[in-house]
What does this fold into?
Amino acid sequence: MGKRLIQQRRGKGTPRYRAPSHRFKSDARYPRCSGDTIKGQVVGIVTDAAHSCPLMRILLDGTFEEILMLAPREVRVGQWIEIGSDARPVNGNVLQLKSIPEGTSIYNIELLPGDGGKLVRTSGTSAYLVSHEGDKANILLPSKKNIMVNGDSRATIGKVAGGGRVEKPFARAGRKHHAKKAKGKLYPITGGVHMNAIDHPFGGKASTIGKSTTVSRYASPGRKVGHISARQTGRKKGRK
It folds into this structure.
């Protein structure tokens, strides 16, 4: 009997395919805000396996509660961070989109007010607040796509720290192994064409697949590999 496909083993949910969330430090979401502007001091910069950027430890003034948030570029220990509608639009502060001037670089944007931040959270990225249109804000994402977001949603001023991370080559397979293992990713992944015929539909002695890579949406789980229910494959010839 052959092996199950990788996607079949992953679907069962064994520890090999689960994220090591017990080692993650924080979700790095915004704290709940009652409407008043709160202040906090950056007391440290930490790294987390769950995030590609560094996190800043903030000690809130008054409550002495410590929270973790995505760190912006040029942040420093001892800097004061303001969170609220009355905060100043300077690097690292968290404001509602309706209170942020047009043309400002922002990150960690909430899709819905109070969700803690969903967009533009990767290291070295930032979005631009293009304009205010009624109670909505027009935002240009790093993908060059424009979206309209509720003006009451919050965002952080600045650019996410850790830019240039993907420019440094791994150079050795061992480094790639440890980087993937920290996030619970499977590495390396053996291609189906390099497997035995009993272990994968594309496997066998030949170095080519030898059959169509398009498979029906209703195929059995062991056959569902390649281009699943694809409308077309290959290059779009004859189009400009």
Observations:
- Residues 166-228 form a domain with the Ribosomal protein L2; domain 3 fold (CATH 4.10.950.10).
- The CA atoms of residues 202 and 211 lie 8 Å apart.
- The helical segments are 6-12, 173-182.
- The first helix runs from residue 6 to 12.
